[in-house]
Write a structure and sequence with these properties.
The protein is an alpha/beta fold. 30% of the residues lie in helices and 18% in strands. The strands form 2 sheets. A 7-stranded parallel beta sheet has the order 1-10-9-6-2-3-5, with helices on one face. The chain is globular. It binds 2-amino-2-deoxy-6-O-phosphono-alpha-D-glucopyranose.
Length: 239
């Protein structure tokens, strides 16, 4: 894995946006694999600025998001669909019918996961997948476990993830306890992957990811199986 250590969040966001922009310039009809969470917000701001400046065009772009809480309505301000609209899609010239997020309201979540896996295969693979990393090393909502899932699946959230994400909700009890998430295999099917991490809270997870072992207690370590992964982090996330 290639590692880029940036001075701060601002620089990390700018480097990540440049890499995504390069993919978009090389193929205006590219497929972007996108992530939510606080980490990529700065990168999305840079991409919005570049789009407004006419440097990048989203009109032919397709996007596939990593995950969604379950159950959650798309208009709930904590849903990942809402997040993507607010932090990127509403501000760029993208065709929203080509933006995909797993269905947080599906009557049959297992069926919705199988359909999402098929969709990613059909429109994809993603030319680039953007990832954040959980404090416990999760990617998407692939939580540490004895065995990791290959394909898109329904998952329970760990206590530590519920606690970490409670900051966005009115209270901890409002955090959904389940999610629909791409599996490790779905993520690894992307042609190129960038993973962003900032702040000391991510340092342990980053260290474990870079330790050169495939360790299911740190799902991000599975990225070592991919030939084109760039870790972009700030100084605080490196120990
Ligand atoms: C969330 C998301 C992940 C994200 C991670 C880190 O639970 N499912 O895709 O990368 O946790 O979030 P943050 O960037 O807010 O630290």
């Amino acid at each position: 894995m290639k590692t880029i250590i940036c001075k701060n969040y601002e620089e990390m966001s700018a480097r990540a946006a440049e890499i995504v922009a390069d993919v978009m310039k090389a193929d205006p009809a590219c497929v972007l694999g996108l992530a939510t969470g606080s980490t990529p917000v700065g990168m999305y701001k840079k991409l919005i600025d570049m789009n407004k400046a006419g440097e990048i065009d989203f009109s032919k772009v397709t996007t596939v998001n990593l995950d969604e809480y379950y159950p959650i309505a798309p208009d709930n301000d904590q849903s990942y669909r809402y997040f993507m609209n607010e932090n990127l899609f509403n501000h760029v010239n993208i065709d929203k019918t080509k933006t995909y997020v797993p269905d947080g309201m599906a009557a049959d979540p297992d069926e919705a996961c199988a359909a999402y896996e098929a969709l990613v295969k059909k429109v994809g693979p993603a030319d680039i997948q953007v990832l954040g990393i959980g404090q416990n090393g999760h990617i998407g909502f692939n939580e540490p476990a004895d065995a990791l899932e290959v394909a898109t699946h329904v998952t329970g959230l760990t206590e530590s993830t519920i606690k970490a994400n409670a900051r966005f909700f009115a209270s901890e009890s409002d955090v959904p306890t389940k999610a629909l998430t791409m599996g490790i295999g779905t993520i690894l099917s992307a042609k190129k992957i960038i993973i962003l991490a900032n702040g000391a809270a991510k340092a342990e997870a980053v260290k474990k990811m870079l330790a050169g072992k495939l360790d299911t207690s740190c799902p991000a370590s599975m990225l070592n199986l991919h030939a084109d992964v760039t870790v972009i982090c700030d100084e605080a996330a490196v120990i």
